[in-house]
Amino acid sequence: MVDTDTFLTILYVMVDDFCKTSLPPEQHPGRQATLSRSEAVTLALFGQWQGVGSERGFYRYAQRHLRAPLLFVTLA
User: Fold this and answer.
1) pLDDT at 66
2) How far is 30 from 54, CA to CA, in rounded Å?
3) pLDDT mean over 42-59
């Protein structure tokens, strides 16, 4: 079994490669988003994999466990 940090890193690389090769560049008015599209999709996929019952529950989990210095540092 692979640890969470390794799994998230592999998942992020796969999602980021897909976003860069298959989707148009992000263009939106207003303030720059805190998380990139790749980071948001990675978190959404990971949340489904974790099986947390709600978005609020996953957000609490992410704030406690995924804000390590090398993971999602801009997660508010």
Assistant:
1) 73
2) 28
3) 84
